[in-house]
Amino acid sequence: MPTLSDVASAAGVSPTTVSRHLNNSIVLPQATRDRIDAAIAHLDYRPNLLAKRLSTGRAEAIGLVTPEIDNPFFAQLAATVEAEAEKHGYAVYMSSTHGDRAREIEAVRRMRDRHVDGMVLITSQPDDGSLAKLLGNQDKVVLLDEDVRGICLPSVFVENERGAYLATRHLIDAGHRHIAYIGGPPGLMSVGERLAGFTRAMAQDGLTFAASDVFLRDYSRSFGSEAAQQIIARKHRPSAIFASSDNLAIGVLQAFRRAGLSVPHDMSLVGFDDMPFAELVNPPLTTIRQPVPEMGRLAFELLLALLNGEPVEPVTRLPLELIERRSVALFTGGSSM
Asked: What is the mean pLDDT of residues 189-217?
C-alpha cells in the first residue's frame, strides 16, 4: 500500500507537508495543493487513521444513539445526522436501543469507550436519573428530540405544545367536541408538552375531557391500535382522535379497518410527525409536520461547534406546521358512530 512518504515523493514535498495538508493545518499555494491531491489520487493513498488520530487528537467519528431504526421517524432523524456528518468528514457509529433503558446506558458507555469525538443522543424513555448521572460530566453531547432531566446539554427540540394545540384546534374548528388523545410514555418531555397543547386548545373553547379519553403508554403502532380498540368498544365514542405520532395514527387506522369502520366517515384522525407514509395511507393523514432534516442538521452543527470549542445555544426549538389532508371530516353534532 502507498505510504505518506510515497505521496510526498510524488508531489515533490516533505511528508510533514502532506500530513499537515491532510489535517488542514497548513495553508499552501494552490499549485502545491493540486500536486499533493493529484499524487493522492494517482497512488490511491488512504491515510492511516490511527496515526491521524494520534496526530490530531480526534477520532473523526461521532456516536449516534437512537431508540429504533425500524421506526420511520427515528430512522429519518438518524439518516439526516449521518448525511450531515459525512459532509464534514465524520464517520458515524450508530446504536439502536429499542427503547430499553439498560441498553441505552450501555450504548452511551460503549460509544464513550470507542473514543468518538462526541455524541448525538435520541432517547425515548423518561429518565430515572441513571442516564443523567452518566451524562452529567460530558460536554460533547447533543440531545435530539427528547430531553434528559437534570442535565444541561445543548438540545434540539420542536415546539411540541404548539404543534399539539394546532392539531386539536383543527379538530375543534371542524366541529368536534369530544376528542380522544393518544400519546407516549408518561413523564417524557414530548408527551407532557403535547398533552398540554391538547389541553390548552380544549380549554380555550370551554371543552372538557375525561381521564378515560387520554391514553398514554408509548409511541408504537401496536399501542395506537390497542387504544383505538378500546375507543371503538365504547357506547358513547369520541368523534375524533388526536394521535400524537404518525406511528400511533397508523395503529388507529389498522384497528378501525379490522372493525369495519373508516376514517374520517366514522371518526376523524390527526397525527403528529408527517412521516413520508402519511400522504400514502388511505385516507391521506392530516398531521403535524416536524422539520426532521432541519433537526438532524442542527444537531450535528451543534455537536461540531462543541468539538471546535465554539459557543452554542443551550436549547433550539423548531416550529411545526399543520398539514391538512383527508382524515378529518366536519362534525355537526350527535354521536360520532
From this structure: 97
